[in-house]
Design a protein that fits this description.
14-stranded antiparallel beta sheet; about 375 residues; globular; about 55% strand
Length: about 375
């Protein structure tokens, strides 16, 4: 089946772009987050394409005054991957690797937005994520991450916010490959280990640079995918990659969420920088589909369905499994040989199962 994408020189296989290989869990996704420098406003968006399931879905979320407002949409893909609009939510690439646009117009939820992401650092390709679960391939994906500023406007429940590049910054990522999407496989995998996933992701914005860190580690705390990078602003030189980047978290009692965090970046045995993170509040990732009981990524909802819900942050139980996956909006301080800076960013956390360095021994035991 030929589609619009076939007129672009982007083929990777000897067949039309509509076909993404033989794995039903192939996906291709946009993600965005943005925040005011004082943390007063936070927003996030996601749009995913699932060629083998013939589904496209999207979501948009805004946090203000202690409430998280979410809108979700899902439609049949019709095998056309370049029509990146799902009901009231649309993502456009204005200039690849530099400028993207997110638009939302959902009167039912009271969410309306038109924001443009402008890169402030070069896009960074993260190491390929490959992980097996027993006999099955659980993850095999590539991701790029990029920090930037935003401009435009957002209206949430009748309140309009002017989004300005000197006030609002954030991060976008693009990932594609294989990971669990859509309905679960009904047949059990007899060699699969007990569920365990330790994930941290900390893209940070400072006045004169950006800092990036991520970590996947096993139950013993051994990293299987990790990276730390310090990136100058566009046109100011090359990024500096740490030979080693490590993190230390203190956990809030009764949760698996950090009360504070430290990230150290080391190169050739010398410390490049240390980032100290202080969480302000949490964005719950289910608000853009991650682990949502109804709007989880890739589920089939028919030709087109749109829904919305709200989360009162103070009422979100940290022990609820659907609330484990968060982005903590954090004030950040960076100490380095090039000087000290204050900034803002997120510390994404998803910690399931045992993790010896953190003191977790079971599937969902919480910090003392």
């Amino acid at each position: 089946m030929l589609t619009k994408a076939d007129d672009y020189p982007i083929h990777q296989r000897p067949e039309p772009i509509a076909y993404a290989g033989g794995h039903r869990n192939f996906y291709d996704r946009y993600f965005f987050n943005g925040y005011a420098q004082d943390g007063e406003l936070f927003f996030a968006a996601a749009l995913g394409v699932y060629p083998a399931l013939n589904v496209m879905d999207a979501a948009f979320s805004v946090i203000h005054d202690g409430r998280q407002h979410n809108v979700y949409a899902s439609r049949v893909l019709n095998m056309e991957r370049l029509d990146t609009r799902v009901g009231p939510i649309e993502v456009d690439v204005i200039e690849p690797m530099r400028v993207l646009r997110v638009r939302v117009d959902d009167k039912a939820s009271g969410l309306v937005a038109d924001v443009r992401f402008n890169a402030r650092v070069e896009a960074m390709e993260e190491p390929r994520f490959t992980r097996r679960s027993g006999a099955q391939l659980a993850m095999d994906l590539t991701r790029l991450t990029q920090n930037g500023t935003y401009e435009g406007s957002i209206t949430a429940k009748g309140k309009r916010f002017e989004i300005r590049p000197d006030v609002h910054s954030g991060t976008r990522d693009r990932s594609w490959g294989i990971r669990g999407i859509g309905a679960r496989d009904p047949q059990p995998n007899p060699l699969a280990e007990a569920p365990q996933f330790y994930w941290l992701w900390a893209p940070l914005n400072f006045p004169n640079r950006a800092a990036f860190y991520h970590l996947n580690s096993d139950a013993d705390g051994e990293p299987w995918n990790t990276r730390g990078v310090l990136s100058p602003l566009l046109g100011r030189g090359a990024a500096i990659e740490a030979d080693e980047a490590t993190s230390v978290l203190a956990f809030k009692s009764g949760t698996r969420h950090a009360s504070k965090a430290r990230i150290d970046y080391v190169r050739k045995g010398t410390k490049l920088a240390t980032a100290e993170l202080t969480p302000l509040y949490h964005f719950y990732m289910k608000g853009i589909g991650y682990g949502h009981p109804k709007w989880s990524h890739g589920l089939f909802h028919g030709e087109l369905e749109v829904g919305h819900d709200e989360i009162t942050l103070a009422d979100a139980a940290p022990s609820d499994p659907s609330n484990l996956h968060i982005q903590a909006i954090c004030k950040a301080k960076l100490e380095s040989n090039d000087g000290n800076e204050s900034g803002i960013g997120v510390l994404e956390q998803m910690i399931i199962g045992p993790h010896k360095p953190s003191g977790f021994k079971a599937m969902l035991d919480m910090a003392p």
